[in-house]
Amino acid sequence: MRAVLCERQGPPEEMKVIDLPDPVAVPGEVVVRLHACGLNHRDVWIRQGLYARIKLPCVLGSDGAGVVESGDPAWVGKRVVLIPGEKWGPNPSVQGKDYLILGMPRQGTMAQKVAVPVSMLVELPAQVPFNDAAALPVAGLTAYRALVTRGGLVKGEHVLVTGIGGGVATLSMLFAQALGAQVSVTSGSEEKLAKARELGAIAAVSYKADGWEKELVKQAGRPPSLIIDGAGGDGLNVLIAAAAPAGRLVLYGATRRSPSSLDMARIFFKQIDIRGTTMGTDDEFRAMVDLVARERVKPVIDKVFPLEQAVEANRLLEASEQMGKILLDCN
Fold first, then answer.
1. How far apart are the first and last CA of the chain?
2. pTM metric for this prediction
3. Could you say which of 50, 107, 147, 256 is the most buried, measured as most Cβ atoms within 10 Å of its Cβ?
4. SS3 string of 189-223?
5. What is the DSSP letter of 72?
6. Residue 233 burial by CB count (10 A; 0-12/13-18/19+): exposed, middle or buried?
7. DSSP character for 37?
8. Rg (Cα) of the chain, in Å, rounded?
9. Which CATH class is domain 2-136+299-329?
10. CATH of segment(s) 140-276
């Protein structure tokens, strides 16, 4: 099979498209012939040495959808999307110490085929195309848990999603709308803000502008009661200021690291909840796929590259210029 092997830490050029032996399913596993693979910043962080317990060389990639080719007879021939993690553990509130994400150390989805445990399979509803499915796993699971499990989203409320354009942010917007919320967004790109307005954002402002939080509330007509953020940094204090009293901030990442200070007085006087989240359980993944199928949610896909152009695809991902997900065609 053809696969993308990340040989060592470094630039995207360290990822080589090579021939590898086809995977073989052991008992309890299947081999999936992948139709499409979605890229995530996890792949970038591994390559840049910013991830825990890195073991290279390895085929990266955590998102995939395809058809079961061999293994458990009950699954052979079925269209599937892969749950991107395994061994969450017994407590649905937090992942256990043995939790693993697909694509290091286990071979990932930047390949024509992958062997995975049956427990990582979800049958793909007929109305969901392979490309849409491949755009879902990591970002969709993260977005669903942030909104529903950790965020406690209520129909009709105003949700602010920061940094629109990234996979998690874009799916958070679509899922929140599908669940009956109004959504506003921020971005540093006017092009992405315009696209978000086309997708139904009730407010869209640049976080580069002074006092953007006041403009957002003016456009939306009310402050957000739920905020989904993956950046952190000193902008966290602006989000606290923007939030409605008793608002909830759900943080799924920290691309801008930790804030240099935190407005503690505003947090407790406004009764603000700050909650962390990462990935999600198998049950949350299944619920997310059900939501996509039931509400006909259409993920935003920026570009689909052939597997042979994996370096170019990862270069675009690293630049963070995309709107939505970047995919590899694994056929």
1. 10
2. 0.97
3. 147
4. CHHHHHHHHHCCCCEEEECCCCCHHHHHHHHHCCC
5. S
6. middle
7. E
8. 20
9. alpha beta
10. 3.40.50.720
